[in-house]
Amino acid sequence: MVEIDEDGRLDVRRFDFYVGICIHYDGKKTLTSVSGFREGVSYEWMLNFMKGFLRCRGNVVDHKVLGKIILLQGDWSKDVQNLLVNHHHAERDQVYVTELYNRIDMSG
């Protein structure tokens, strides 16, 4: 669902938030980080919501650069994207998935 304004340009101000899902590979382990929820959404509540549906482990980390993020063990990118869209926490256009293949310190 892309909206075009009167001048034929893409309306990028359509959403007030975007959810970012990033997959981190460090050789042995895979982590999925989720961030960018709209204001007022509790990250702890969202973590429990995701863990309940996905049956995985995870925690909320207050990262010094990225802010609050949810870390899930394993590659849950497509499942988290579908979960957020199907339960009306975000539209498909608001969720983007990226991958990082290098080792990243997610300890905060």
UniProtKB/TrEMBL annotation:
Annotated protein name in UniProt: SUI1 domain-containing protein
GO molecular function, a single term: translation initiation factor activity
Residues of the SUI1 domain: 27-88
Native source species: Acer saccharum (Sugar maple)
One protein family per Pfam: SUI1
